[in-house]
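TA notes. Do not distribute before section.
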Amino acid sequence: MSTVAAGIEAVPPRRRSPAWTAVRRNPTIAVGASILGVLVLMAVFAPLIAGDPLAMSPIDRLRPPSAEVWFGTDQYGRDVYSRTIYGARVSLTVGIVVALAATAIGLVVGLVCGYFRPVDAVVMRVMDGIMAIPSILLAIALITLTQPGLRIVMVAIVIPEVPRIVRLVRSVVLSIREQPYVESAIAGGTKGPRLLFRHILPNTMAPIIVQASYVCASAMLVEASLSFLGAGVPPEIPSWGNIISQGRSFFQIAPWSILIPGAFLTVTILAVNLLGDGLRDRLDPRLARRL
């Protein structure tokens, strides 16, 4: 018996990857990422899986969903399925670009305000002034003063989002500056940009990543609201807000022209929020201990 046992080699337990462990402990990350992955694939391959979103067929106007037209048609005979798929391109582009731009600008300004106190007093008063204006009204004012377009819409949404990132980064930097390892680095002669990028910046990434996901969801909702009000992207560009706005007059006889793009918008924002909540639970050490 001992001879047989000696001849058997011990098999080490299979180690699971950190990514799989994170997904298993917090399934909201997997759900949110999966939904977003499907939506991104749909947007990227829209020319292959959807027809021309601008093609009109007056004879087929206001057709209900069927095997031929999955999501029905609108008042101009345009395929709601094609317009909804192409609308994902606009919403996802706005959400991702606004999140990246607002996070980059807010991160730099927040680091400077949190580390250099004389600059903080001036810059934060400007940020407070911007935050005092409702984001929708500020975006409408900026779009009204310029020529409407997708780039202008993204710029108009970025500006109100920057102060929120700045205040978050500033508060984190002020907290990190009091940590013993930062004081030790300062005592050792580390100052200026080296201290910021080596000791402070890495510790601000976790809350910034979580906040960026919420900015992405907020940007998509604001873009849809602006398009619905007629102050967003031009009507010839299919976006979920435009589709809902153009179909509201026919809601009683063609509810699919509003409900379907509205459902896509809701699911997309829900997926982004699920991903953000999962990242928050995973990256926050206090919450991660409970999982």
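Switch to the second chain here.
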Amino acid sequence: MFRALLLQRTDAKTNASLVDLDEAALPAGNVDVRVDYSSLNFKDALAITGRGAIVKKWPLVPGIDLAGVVERSDDPSWKAGDRIVVNGWGIGETDWGGLAQRARLKSDWLLKLPAAYDTRQAMAIGTAGYTAALCVMALQKHGLTPDKGPVLVTGSTGGVGSVAVVLLAGLGFDVVASTGRAAETDYLRSLGAKEIIDRASLSAPGKPLQSERWAGVVDTVGSHTLANACASTKWYGAVAACGLAQGFDLPATVMPFILRGVTLYGINCVFNPNDERRRAWDLLASHLTPERLESMTHEIGLSDAISASSDLLDGRLRGRTVVDVNR
């Protein structure tokens, strides 16, 4: 038997509960993993609360992240005792995810745990940190360098935003952090932000083309915020978009793109090849120390994940939330 957070659908309503399951309930897969830690992401919170159409198969164990130890493998690439991390690949959406003490997975989804981190630290990074790394890699691929100007990070107190601030500051960029939480100014400065701005300056409808401010942008918010970020990006600058906290619409015009040559990169973190995932984790290991990671992390037990999901969606959490599935 093992403990799991299980989502079920009744009368078009999502019901989340902690249950004890037999291992016979595990889905198909060729690798069995003892889960040490998972994490709580925006997408997980939407699934658990039922506020978003995340779950595609019922019943389902949510959790788009997990880290743990291989217990059994039918694939010779993996053996009992291997420490692994899994982000994305549809777990927590179409396949059972990490908010449980056991998981059965496809071997192609597994990534060797980076030597720089233990399983808890890997989940303190999780999909949010890995996504932040993909955003930064997109800006680097574009050719963005610190001498070209400041980089804006929206939703900067969230998981993606917090890690993006650390990575960009570590690479030498002047980071401007946008937040609606003025009380978190010291926190953001501790991560490396040079300037803090109120998200209200970006979240309302704005002009289609605005004064040039940013050489690059990491946007976790979408909607008017993303539109304004694009409109105020410098000539041949780049915007990496990975979130929709404000909304999934993009009320923008083509003007920044055809008059200033701005490039908008869409960041998908779910189905990236493992080579790209390894590069992202290498970038994280180079600039995100365990000590800095701990400063943006808090831990909850599996029994706390349901209530914490509402807190996350309502903006009452900052940084990263690690879930110890064994308490």
